[in-house]
Design goal:
two-stranded antiparallel sheet, hydrolase activity, KFase/CYL, 10 helices, 320 residues, 2 domains, KFase_sf
Length: 320
């Protein structure tokens, strides 16, 4: 697939029509490509556990995160409402020496490791499955495809495609590097894995390792390696359930058109119904996969069942 850099509107329209899953699972569908992740696929994922070693793929949720305030996205603020000092001073009012601690957190739901829900992106006023966006997401939240519907479904066979190690230099791709289908295929061949229906695919670019070494910089919204717009057909054809990367925006930035903003999102979320994860920490898992040569594993990554949310923090766990 090629696209005219000067005409993102036409390229998006063509890809959206070609890759549409509208109506595939009925008019009332709220899961999109998670429909590909069935009981058999979960059993396949569970059978991959051999060593019992596990990896959290989440970044830390704290004030030292990457957010800079764009569109009111800030880093988490963690506040203690009860402390050990309160208990020691007898300020909590409990009998027989009982004491405790409590805390709260305030944060945008997409400020760190997270899933984009199906109500997150629209295409010309259309939400997933062709529904009018204004009837789906209101001031009360996503009234139809809230991320709570996905909470029980995201567990199955995970596959790591470490494109940074296979294609990059010193394990990292440069900012602005567009990962094509050919690059994904090269990673699969190098790792000896296949990708297909119902898989949860993780794509490592190495950008997170670089910003941890050099500082956050413009990690949140700036230039980054990522999926090329031309991978839309591959994402549709493989029938994967979900895909996640170690970058802020999943697709390559700057985008591949002269005047565009996240065009691949516009195709794959509202038209394809694809679940997308961003800002995942794949470093420890990637190092282990490189050591033992096994790039498939059981992956559980349930979003928080926040009613009406269009995204959710997540602590993905890969088990090998």
């Amino acid at each position: 697939m090629t696209a005219d850099r000067t005409d993102p509107e036409a390229a998006i329209a063509e890809a959206a029509a070609r890759c549409s899953n509208w109506g595939r699972w009925g008019d009332g569908d709220v899961l999109g490509t998670l429909n590909f992740l069935d009981e058999a696929k979960r059993r396949e994922g569970a059978a991959l556990v051999r060593q019992g070693v596990s990896f959290s793929l989440a970044q830390r949720f704290d004030t030292n995160g990457p957010q800079k305030g764009w569109r009111r996205r800030t880093n988490p603020v963690h506040t203690m409402t009860d402390t050990g000092a309160d208990a020691a001073l007898g300020l909590q009012g409990f009998p027989h020496g009982f004491g405790g601690a409590d805390d709260v957190i305030a944060m945008p739901l997409q400020c760190s490791t997270q899933w984009d829900g199906l109500g997150h992106i629209f295409d010309h006023g259309n939400a997933w499955n062709g529904r009018p966006a204004e009837r789906v997401v209101t001031a009360e939240g996503d009234q139809v495809t809230g991320i709570e519907h996905m909470a029980a479904h995201v567990a199955g066979r995970g596959v790591l495609l470490d494109v940074g190690r296979v294609i990059g230099r010193d394990g990292e791709l440069p900012d602005g590097f567009a990962i094509t289908e050919e690059h994904l295929t090269a990673a699969m061949e190098a790792h000896g894995v296949r990708v297909g229906r119902g898989d949860i695919v993780l794509v490592r670019t190495g950008q997170l390792a670089r910003v941890r070494r050099d500082g956050w910089g413009d990690y949140a919204g700036g230039p980054a390696p990522g999926l090329s717009f031309t991978t839309a057909g591959w994402l549709h054809r493989t029938e994967i359930a979900a895909i996640a990367t170690d970058t802020w925006g999943f697709e390559v930035r700057p985008n591949e058109f002269d005047d565009a903003f996240q065009p691949l999102h516009q195709v794959v979320i509202p038209n394809m119904g694809l679940l997308i994860g961003e800002m995942w920490d794949l470093e420890a898992l990637a190092a282990h996969c490189a050591d033992d040569g096994a790039y498939e594993f059981l992956l559980t990554a349930a979003p928080l069942p926040i009613t009406g949310a269009v995204g959710s923090p997540v602590n993905p766990i890969a088990i090998k």
